[in-house]
Amino acid sequence: MAEQLASFAARLAGACRAAGLPVGPDRAARFAAAVAAVEPSTAERLRHCATATLASAPEHVAAVQRALEEVLAGVPEVPADPADGRRSPARAVDGPAGAPAPPAGPPVGGGAGPEQEHGLVASAREQLGGRDFAELTPGELAALESAMRALRLATPLRRTRRTRPAARGRVDVRASLRAARSTGGDALRLVRREPRREPRRLVVLCDISGSMSPYARAMVQLLYCAAGGIDAEVFTFATRLTRITPALARTSPAEALARAGEAAPDWSGGTRIGESLRAFNDTVGVRGLARGAVVLIVSDGWDTGDPAVLGAQLARLRRVAHRIVWANPRAHRPGFAPRTGGMAAARPHCDAVVGVKDLDSLPELLAALTGTASRTSSW
Predict the structure, then answer these.
(1) What percent of the chain clears pLDDT 90, i.e. is strictly above it?
(2) pLDDT tops 50 at residue 92
(3) Are both 287 and 339 inside the same structural domain?
(4) Name one Pfam family in it (predicted).
(5) pLDDT of residue 373
(6) Is residue 150 assigned to a domain?
(7) Looking at the domain assignment, is residue 343 inside a domain?
(8) Is 73 helix (H, G, I), strand (E, B) or coil?
(9) Is residue 151 assigned to a domain?
(10) Residues linked to residue 237 through DSSP beta bridges, in sequence order
């Protein structure tokens, strides 16, 4: 029941405060909302909900998990089978719909089964799919992790200098002569090869200014969850350019976001898009990183600098990049048109401008990256 979930959240918040953590009623409410949205099926997922909503710093995670274990230890167990009286590891904590709370699931690193995982993805999509990223709490954003993992970022293929065996293609003379040794020198079979194709590099330039902070966090989480085998380089910018690719490797989305914030000292600061693009072009972009790559710029276009600088730098980038996609959360608003400021200067140099503000709008972005979407949005 909802009352029992609220009571459980209040007890957990009290245990966190007793451990010296700054957990007030607002964070307790976020935890309860995250549990209601995710409907965690294992204790591990319940711990994810707790750390995402109650820990305000990396050093608080261990204390939050200890507080959760203490509160769960105080909840009576219920029999799994009344016939034999055995105890079940499930705790008698009811969720908003009266269902038993998550059982003590697999050890850390485990997960729900395929059917449970599918249910969690469907639940997250149904409840949060149309919610603006700016309206989501940290717990609700974490709840979208499974749904984002169901997506796949892809870029167009490019020909490489490496080759692979093929039924049709150029004759590999050396390989054909080696094969002829087994037939007395007669080349009865010609060995052919064709160029190998690989996905193009994805370069992401993400605006982390105050107006873009919630969308930047969602995009960083998407890159972590759905990148697959794409060779991706990620930079953030506001008043300066920061490479955060190493911060996104081999860690959870929540920790990746925390590391990204530490690596980018101007998170939630002002915005100088043109100057940041100049720094990217001058250092690594035009020199090679952006050559033949798909460049994704995530920004609302609110630039405190000179729009002419932005236009000039995008023109430089356009000459070396394979494709430039601009993701703007404001593009979904009725009547939006890039007639002034940064977006007006950027539009002529973009292959696609898409509105990305929630989970439901991400397929449009994925299509734009592969080149299967239109050049611009409906405007």
Answers:
(1) 18
(2) no
(3) yes
(4) VWA_CoxE
(5) 59
(6) no
(7) yes
(8) helix
(9) no
(10) 207, 241
**Which residue is listed with tokens 């000039």?**
312
**Chain-centre distance of CA 104, in angstroms?**
28
Confidence of residue 240 (pLDDT cuts 50, 70, 90): confident
Residue 153 forms part of a structural domain: no
Query: What pTM was estimated for this model as a whole?
Result: 0.63
* Residue 217 structural domain: 202-370
Which structure tokens are listed for 258?
């925390």
| CATH code assigned at 244 | 3.40.50.410
Reduced to 3 states (helix: H, G, I; strand: E, B; else coil), residue 324 is strand
Cβ-based burial of 181 (10 A; exposed 0-12, middle 13-18, buried ≥19): exposed
